[in-house]
Design a protein that fits this description.
The chain is 24% helix and 25% strand. It has 345 residues and is an alpha/beta fold. Helix 5 crosses helix 6. The longest helix is centred in the last third of the chain and has 14 residues. The structure holds NADP nicotinamide-adenine-dinucleotide phosphate.
Length: 345
């Protein structure tokens, strides 16, 4: 029965030159394959859009496998099992897996060949599946371990979070506040800066387009900062290096300001601060912290339930809108977690 069905998927047909354009992508109809033993067919309901997908569009850069041309893109998605030839999944199960950018995905309990590795997720009226692409998923875990494990959050730290109105940054601001810290956030518009302060609870925030980041950060954190959660790189990293106090730390999470560049821009000119002030700069990939997921989810579920953590979503509807939504994400047009809803309600 699966073989009769057709689904759509998004292919990358050209490596973007600078900011991606709609004609770098193509929507393709595909006939769904017959399932082999051990496989299940998932009807994807939501997919995640992540800035790091732009890095993979450059090809193999040593970061994660590059996206191949004329092949479907991938990324985290959730969906419902509609057919199964494995005892691991039954029709109706909600699953999380890495085969987004397509309406249907073939999955297994362990990845193999054409099938992605999927995991069942617990959903209920208060816990929609799409939260596993945001606060209850790797996005949330990134904020959590970035602050606690990588940044070694310490009592009394003043924390600066860039990209603070985004998915990871917005959660990092709130987790740091829940732990009693003074938090400064930056974002790309006055409205977003107000959201970071008034809704997410940061003590101060600024719009980085209002002037030199270094001056804006100095005004927002006149006594300096102890921990910088870096989502942006570039001018934000340079500003943080100036404002960090002795033995301060940087959790290097991302560098979205540089993702469209064909060749990596040079590092900050004031890197010598790391020596002069005894700073620690530590990069990380969240995959290395998967073991922290159960503890993180327990805490995050409680925060979501009691309102201690709030989160916004920017949603595009329909797989045909996914490329435009990804372009909009990189332009900073959304707030919170960027998602594509793949099936009508
Ligand atoms: N290390 C890991 O394992 C890991 C895991 C997940 C994500 N990340 C990284 O974490 C960062 C945030 O990811 P996310 O999923 O939460 O994305 P996001 O913050 O929700 O979306 C990206 C945001 O970046 C901002 N931006 C774009 N260009 C910018 C520029 N030139 N300067 C400053 N800000 C710019 C835009 O917001 P504004 O309007 O505020 O500019 C945009 O909304 C990214 O760097 C991502 O690669 C790392």
């Amino acid at each position: 029965m699966a073989a009769a069905r057709v689904g759509r998927e998004v292919h990358l047909v050209r490596r973007p030159d600078g900011a991606p354009r709609p004609d770098d992508f193509r929507l393709v109809d595909v006939k769904l394959p017959e399932l082999a033993d051990g496989e299940a067919l998932v009807r994807n309901t939501w997919m995640s859009l992540d800035p790091a997908m732009r890095i993979r569009m450059h090809g193999d850069t040593g970061y994660m496998p590059g996206f191949a041309l004329d092949r479907p893109l991938d990324g985290m998605a959730v969906g419902d099992v509609v057919a199964s030839r494995t005892p691991a999944f039954a029709p109706g199960d909600a699953v999380l897996h890495p085969f987004g950018w397509r309406e249907y995905a073939v999955v297994r309990a362990g990845a193999s060949g054409r099938a992605a590795k999927a995991a069942r997720i617990e959903t209920d009226a208060a816990t929609p599946a799409r939260w596993y692409l945001g606060p209850l998923g790797r996005v949330g875990l990134t904020a959590y371990v970035g602050l606690i494990d990588v940044g070694e959050l310490r009592a009394g730290d003043v924390v600066f979070v860039s990209g603070a109105a985004g998915a990871v940054g917005g959660l990092a601001v709130q987790i740091a506040k829940l732990r009693g810290h003074t938090v400064v956030g930056s974002a790309g518009s006055a409205e977003k800066a107000a959201y970071v302060r008034d809704e997410l609870g940061a003590d101060a925030s600024f719009c980085y387009r209002d002037g030199q980041v270094c001056e804006l950060l100095a005004a927002a954190a006149p006594d300096g900062i102890d921990l910088y959660f870096d989502n942006v790189g570039g001018d934000h990293l340079e500003a943080a290096l100036d404002l960090l106090r002795p033995r301060g730390r940087i959790a290097m999470c991302g560098a979205v300001a540089t993702y469209n560049a064909a060749t990596p821009p040079p590092g900050p000119p004031n890197l010598f601060n790391a020596i002069a002030k005894g700073l620690t700069l530590r990069g990380f990939l969240v995959h290395a912290y998967e073991g922290r997921m159960p503890e993180f989810r327990r805490e995050m579920r409680a925060w979501l339930a009691d309102g201690g953590v709030r989160h916004r979503e920017t949603v595009a509807e329909g797989i045909e809108r996914a490329p435009a939504a990804f372009i909009a994400l990189l332009r900073g047009e959304g707030t919170g977690k960027a998602l594509v809803k793949l099936q009508p309600s």
